[in-house]
């Protein structure tokens, strides 16, 4: 036996083995794909067997047998296309061309004996073109697929390419002198063997191989599982779950979350509106309502109501399984593919496993959300308590003087009604009573700021005029410069806007150093009124800047007992500005002073317009 | 004894000499009481009341000022506000302890947890603001000791 004969024998043995395996699959699960696979491999196997039988036993080489076997071989491209179609959609035109080619080939085979070279070469060309075209088609499809399915499609594409190469080699052999034909025929057989293996792997992968392909994807999915609940939004978690499940099964996956009011909600990150579907509609709805895994290879027939949608989306097979945490029904995981052979029986189990993982992840998310909600509530309560205790502290301070001083004056008067009036003591009482009043008003304003009720009736107000009035009223008016070129008019609550300017100017005087100038600029820009108050004081420490407009200017590192004063002034100022539809900001650097910027909506500056 | 207890007969205007001082008569002068508060109104009012009752009063508007006084004199008691900018009541109390003084410290605070803070610095007594004039005088009387 020569080496070539050895290769030929081995090739045929492997083909025969694969054929037997596929036939076993057909007997176990007679799907269209398995039957087509058996037909395809059967064609070549019959040719081998025939050659062996005539060779070993010297059986008569009947012409009719020759025609049938050769016809079976040339039928291969057509069978291949059928296989492709079981797996993914094959264009109708290509199928028709293959059928026509098959008809012509059979006619040619029947008409000539032996076939002339041109006829043989025509057959070879037809065979090679169809299988390489289909091969390219699959390579492109593979790019869109993922996981197992991608590998299967790549294997099928490789099988098609190898088959085309085998045929071309055989055709080449026809044109060579007979003593060289041995080599080409060996090569042809080897290529045919490889293509057979590739097809086997692609069309009917053994469970072990399938699992080996799925495992790394599943591992990657499980490895990410721990971090998924911490993604910023539920939509992102769902998207990550869909991607992981899709890759693992080798198909597309979608997750619908039960909304609680009879719908399953499908949302992708970035999509404004989720798609809502009744929780008992579609195959997914069936899985959800019946709380079991549903598989269908004909969704259009199983769900006639939505047959068109399945057809239009090119969905030919669906596995849907409920996502359940304990007794709580969270939603449905749906995996769908173009054709049913993409799924194996084990994929039902795999999908269930993925749904369980999804349930764990979504449940963790719910717990994290709940914990965050409780924390936020606790924080809000703590802030409220802090505020109340700060407010109480600040109110008690003037009260201390009021109570003690008033009692003291009362006793003095009781003891000596004729004694001269203690004017200093009285003045102190008046001053502290006024301070208490201001504090109470400030507290009320803070409450209004929180409820968005700071701003009352609006009227046209000239900010320049208002700023000048306020500047002149100050005891240190000489230090204040108001810069403006033209009136700046807007619809404002005059009293409240005056309060804003007053507060900013007072702050500037208080913190702006003893001598520096306070500059108030009023102008208009892009239809907005702009007002700024700048001082030349010590500035605001950078760590305080971000919190300066908050109700509590208090960092987490500040000792609670050092925390004094309500510091509500700027909080109220911000409330007034924002409730006018404006905004406020501050820029400051230590040693360089601070500038507060206020922007408010303005009326058109020209009063005649 | 409590000065100006409600039902006691009027004893005259305590501008220069109060009944407490009268009672101390032969036992010599007391050392001054140091009042520390960053709120000037409270500081003035408390000082005025104590002076009217015959105490010598030293005033400090900050913890720093209080420490300066403590360097020079040994008061018979310190009335101490807790929340003050810069050097606060805790710092003053620590400084007193660090100097090995055994001066009675009376905490004056508007905070809700006055008692807790008093315990924190091992104070002698506390006055929760706003306090009654009698409370003030009673506590100060009880905790100021005459010179030996």
In short:
The complex is a heterodimer of chains A (609) and B (148). With 609 residues, chain A is α+β, with helices and mostly antiparallel strands.
Give short descriptive properties of this protein.
heterodimer, A: 609 residues, alpha+beta, six-stranded antiparallel sheet, five-stranded mixed sheet, 13 strands, elongated, disordered C terminus, B: 148 residues, alpha/beta, five-stranded parallel sheet, 5 strands, 39% helix, 15% strand, globular, disordered N terminus
Structure description:
Chain A is α+β, with helices and mostly antiparallel strands and 609 residues long. Chain A has helices at residues 3-28, 32-57, 63-74, 76-87, 92-111, 117-144, 147-175, 181-203, 207-225, 234-249, 282-290, 299-302, 307-312, 346-415, 423-451, 463-473, 494-511, 569-579, and strands at residues 252-258, 263-266, 275-278, 294-296, 317-325, 328-337, 459-462, 480-483, 489-492, 518-525, 528-534, 583-589, 593-601. In chain A, the strands form three sheets. In chain A, strands 3-2-1-6-5-4 form a six-stranded antiparallel sheet, with helices on both faces. In chain A, strands 8-10-11-13-12 form a five-stranded mixed sheet, covered by helices on one side. In chain A, strands 7-9 form a two-stranded antiparallel sheet. In chain A, a hairpin with a 4-residue loop joins strand 1 (252-258) and strand 2 (263-266). In chain A, helix 15 (423-451) packs across helix 18. The longest helix of chain A has 70 residues, at 346-415. Chain A starts with a helix and ends in an 8-residue tail after the last strand. The relative contact order of chain A is 0.05. By secondary structure, chain B is an alpha/beta fold. Helices cover 39% and strands 15% of the residues of chain B. Chain B is built from six helices and five strands; from the N terminus they run H-E-H-E-H-E-H-E-H-E-H. Chain B has helices at residues 19-24, 40-52, 63-72, 89-98, 114-120, 133-143; strands at 33-36, 57-60, 77-81, 105-109, 125-128. Chain B has a five-stranded parallel sheet, sandwiched between helices. In chain B, helix 3 packs parallel to helix 4. Residues 1-28 of chain B have low confidence and may be disordered. Chain A binds chain B through residues 389, 392-394, 396-405, 407-408, 411-412, 414-416, 419, 425, 428, 431-432, 561-562, 564, and chain B through 4, 10-13, 39, 41-42, 44-46, 48-49, 52, 82-83, 88, 90, 110-112, 117, 129-133, 136.
